[in-house]
DNA sequence: AGCACGCCGACT
DNA sequence: GTCGGCGTGCTC
């Protein structure tokens, strides 16, 4: 086995295969599949992942592996298979799939530098560049404006050479420890020999004679009130030695979490957990869907199932939506399992993510709680995978590889023969349909653990408010309830459902709307900078004082941003202390947590925010929840809009009255009769499911069909249309089944982004076993144009949102 | 992707 | 001549 099959870090479809390399003698014993290596590739060097080893190769001009980056494989055998599966399922490149499975810092950094090889005089410019140095970073060439030709000559003459460097981004944090380097009795001898003037040194030695264990330098210095020089003196005398130890950054202080023990389960909880426990005992794979109302104790089921898994010596992955990875959630897991829990989410720094990943990799933890990508945690003995709030769309990755964490979890569950548990108060229609068909095992938790009724929901018809002359964003009912709530010393949460509802600028005279010059979308008004910004390409301009079209000064802001609501609210109820939570106020690290803490400490009466406040928050003093615009996303061109509205309303209602105080919910809408709003107010998931399934059947949408979405983009409008047309034609000639439909070419909902036109076509199918292969074959025909003409083609095998 | 190579037009 | 721009093909 002297040959390695390597996937190289070159994201191009023509490179999407393994390349063979000879394994030099010195790496024979250490190199294993799953390790990262540096290999020569053409004139440069690149990073690669070893997929396997072989004793022969078809290729006869093999090069050698230049270096091995890992001591232990970063990809287990299972993850290598999973990566291949992922790439094929999502029509992505292998390298893209593998990179997605590992923390950022394991990606390579590439650098070029020039080395001076001889003393021979170089052209003047080069001579000044080197200025006595032997190595020069390549970027300096460009900034010095030196032409490539002069260098080329020097290279040909053998005076200069180019090095291609591959650097790992890994940064480990080290802590210095001190320990005795000799036997205790030798230390004692040395202690006698030490001059009496060396008081501090004697003290230190005495300490190590008493306690020879290694100790952190910092602690030592602090304890003895001395400095590094004392230690150095002893090190020089070879009595003590310095040990550098790798230290993990621990973003959470484990000791700070109050330990909890298993709660007694209700009858419903018992019934739900028993089949899961059985799977755990029997090493059996099933997918369970726990449909449990808010407050029915799903988390306790997760915790106790994990307990079983740990007791069996196995590991657990818990996925939670990005947004609800609140301290509250972390506390529940750390509280139960203490330091055996790793946490992975986007708010961690790259270094912190890497450290958490390593704790998993080195088997220091048994549980990982994390967002989507935690589904790739490098456990080798998985006993359960849990996906909380399984309907959340943050489980779908929206760039390559476009995977759904649920699919990956089930794939891993199959290989590990372990259960996958999906939990939600409002399961995705696909999931519930599968449970109905018996593909998943369904468990329903209809009762809340505290036996409290769900808060009452009042629907306010905003049209009659308008007729009654109330033109504000707040219905009279909501205003009254807010005032009462504050007067009682309780708190309220106000949700502005902002999707598709941003603040834009319009001229009242001629109706002109300021749009982005690069994208087909209205610019969004940002008050604090007095700017108009494009949310797709980050173009920005100052707010005009006069209409660019008709020069009128009657320019007004439309739509409803949280900022405007906040202003209106403080006018309406001046005594209210309002806390605003949206992308603007939570951008800074830790801001999210800080705001929530302020609210928990009752420093504000009203928490006003977007989607992000709907999930997972649990404040005991909140008794009123108001939804300002329940239907704002109902009319978006997305087949899931009713489902999303239902989910959001159900979820946000669950925020009220979770504890002793009774809660109340007010939902403002212009379409009170819509079934998603009406049924959400009655907490009737089953009825909603049936209604919505009828709609999906009628319009042929998932779960009745599968979707594949192909999007084409290019600067030239005609090119896009023609290419999409060709793809549609190609697809028609490949599809096999009767019922398969291909829609398009259609302009994408936002037809132009960053000066590129976007068209799409969609395949709706029930059974098309060769579709993936066909799509692959069709788009490969455009490889040349993709490379040379900046054409882009993306495929999404299960688009989650069409906008 | 990134790089070299080679062909072609333009310019000191 | 020779500099530099761009199209083409290759990478174990």
UniProtKB/TrEMBL annotation:
Residues 542-710 form the Helicase C-terminal domain. Residues 184-211 form a coiled coil. InterPro entries: DEAD/DEAH_box_helicase_dom, Helicase_ATP-bd, Helicase_C-like, P-loop_NTPase, PriA, PriA_3primeBD, PriA_3primeBD_sf, PriA_C. Residues 279-445 form the Helicase ATP-binding domain. Keywords: ATP-binding, Coiled coil, DNA replication, DNA-binding, Helicase, Hydrolase, Isomerase, Metal-binding, Nucleotide-binding, Primosome, Zinc. GO terms for molecular function: 3'-5' DNA helicase activity; ATP binding; ATP hydrolysis activity; DNA binding; zinc ion binding. It catalyses: ATP + H2O = ADP + phosphate + H(+); Couples ATP hydrolysis with the unwinding of duplex DNA by translocating in the 3'-5' direction. Its EC number is 5.6.2.4. GO terms for biological process: DNA recombination; DNA replication initiation; DNA replication, synthesis of primer; double-strand break repair. GO terms for cellular component: primosome complex. The keyword Manganese does not apply. Gene3D superfamilies: P-loop containing nucleotide triphosphate hydrolases, PriA, 3(prime) DNA-binding domain. It comes from the Bacteria. Zn(2+) 1 binds at residues 507, 510, 547, 550. Transmembrane segments: none annotated. Its cofactor is Zn(2+). Binds 2 zinc ions per subunit. Pfam families: DEAD, Helicase_C, PriA_3primeBD, PriA_C, Zn_ribbon_PriA. Component of the replication restart primosome. Belongs to the helicase family. PriA subfamily. This is Replication restart protein PriA.
